[in-house]
Amino acid sequence: MTAISNLGQQLATAFTDARRITPTGGLPATAAEAYAVQDSVLAHLGGGIGGWKVGAPNAETEPNCGPLPASGVHASGAVLPAARFAARWVELEAALRVGRLLEVRQDMPTPTELAGFFDAVVPTLECVESRLAAGREAPVPLRLADLQSHGALVVGEPAPLAPSALDLRTLQAALRFGEEEVARTTGGNPAQDVWRLVGWLARHCTERGVPLSPGQIVTTGSCTGLLAAPLDTDVVGAIEGLGEVRLRYAA
Question: Which end of the chain has fewer surrounding CB within 10 Å, N or C?
Fold first, then answer.
């Protein structure tokens, strides 16, 4: 077994068992190696890709991404067992639903052309969970290999907003835990340009051999930052023009 496959198996087992580990053997040192480990994790988990997370810390830095296991994509209102989500970190994100196969092999499509490959915009809550004992202190390539700390994705209803009208720079977003509003932002996503993210992801996935496919959900980074949710409390995210999405962590 190669070092990549070995690490992929360790992370997939930790994902299935909902536990944290200190990986043994060779660890990824580059983004390319981390993406190869992600592929291995998905192969060991089985069930296919339900979507992708893509983001960037600002408007200039190259984005990064992670595939989302199909088994971890849930409809709004999901009740998630706290035993599987120890950290209970959540992020409110605007996402796009792929409407037709998107492959980028030569020239990058324009933003208008890219928007035509998506059939809906949806509000989402990403549950962020690490399989690494070191958590956010683990090396960057290792965190990337760990599906960029993805735990689950809860997806709201399609919004009336057309994909071409999605603008991360002006989105107004709010997050509540029960009756308490814990975040409210305008243009809170640091990546700012959604079509730069999506164009990069489309080319990356094409080159990786797993092009964006109909029905997949593409999340585009947090609008409200990373916050830890309380137990047995409704977590409600609202994005103007997109509607609401909610989940609950149950003890």
Answer: C
- Can you list the alpha helix ranges (DSSP code H) found in the chain? 3-17, 31-45, 111-115, 140-145, 194-208
CA distance 115 to 99: 10
* Cβ–Cβ < 8 Å for 217, 124: yes
Count of positions (residues) in the chain: 251
CA distance 236 to 181: 9
* Two tokens, residue 105: 């092999």
What are the chain's domains? 48-250 (3.90.850.10)
Q: Please, which residues bridge with residue 51 across strands?
A: 68, 217
Whole-model pTM: value is 0.96
- For the CA atoms of 68, 72, 74, 78, the dihedral, rounded to the nearest 10 degrees, stands at -140
Which portions of the chain are predicted below pLDDT 50? none
Give the pLDDT confidence score for residue 1 in this predicted structure: 66
CA distance 194 to 122: 14
Contacts of 106 (CB under 8 A, 6+ apart): none
